[in-house]
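Figure 2 data, in text form.
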Amino acid sequence: DLFQVLKALQVQMQRLQDENKSIKEENKTLRAEKPKQKWRADTQHELSVHKDTITIYACKYGMMVEM
């Protein structure tokens, strides 16, 4: 009786290990397919766009003050 229980537990443990392995493989695949995020590059681009906008408005303001 004890040997049957141990055998059943070993079979269940093997099944769980196999399932765990397949889930790990799936996670590896999903991580590899996940697009990379480049925060610094995007931030620099956003800042340069805002800087250009500020420069344009500053020039317009300067022209208005001179008139």
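Caption note: The longest helix spans residues 2-33.
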